[in-house]
Amino acid sequence: MNPVELVGWTHLKHGGLLLDPPRLREIAGHDPGPLPAYSELRLRRLAASLLDGDENPADFVSFVLMQVCGFLEMTGSWVRGPQVPPDWGRADVTGEVVKPRQLWAGVNGGALPVFMDKEPRLGIGHGRRVQSQVVQWLRSGGERLAVLTNGRQWRLVFAGLDFDAWCEWDEDLWLEEGGLSPQVHALRTLSAAGRSCSTWGLQSLPSSSRLTGLSDRRAQTRPAPALRTGLQGPSGGRGSISCLH
Predict the structure, then answer these.
(1) Average pLDDT over residues 184-188
(2) Is the dihedral of CA 76, 82, 87, 88 positive or negative?
């Protein structure tokens, strides 16, 4: 592997510059290791069922996040659907309250909000609406990264005060003859990097690890209730997996 390359990164779709080469090189060092054979087999079966319309997208998303990406109980905890606390809801420009469908709270105080869309293509046609809502949701709080997915397409979305970017995986391209595609390796490597961060809050990021194109001003975070005791970010606001950038 090229020392500045994150395997699979160039196989993704990109909107804006989510990660610059120095940060990609740092993240590439978080090798997740091979996916267990039974998890790969189940991924193949569930992916085929999803393509055939026989698999619930929300269940598939939960499987991928936990068994493929590694967001398991030893690294944090999940709440889903109506269990996501109402104080994670934020009004969009129309007044509609937008809230993650799933929420991972890490043992280090980080949070990964996951949004679901029913549209067949993310960010295209009617899919632009939910993409816009996620960006606005991030900007109105202390988080800077979120996942947006319909099950088949997966976006990691970043939003700062004056900049946003994303990268997108396509589940149709995850499986190759004899193994998993580079896209899956990129997904698992980014997840491993996020889980291993010792500092989760945006307020504590050194300026050298910010995304290229962002201003030096720090995001203004509002005090926000924790999902449960001990899960607040280092500055009193909620943390996020902002350490990826």
Answers:
(1) 97
(2) positive
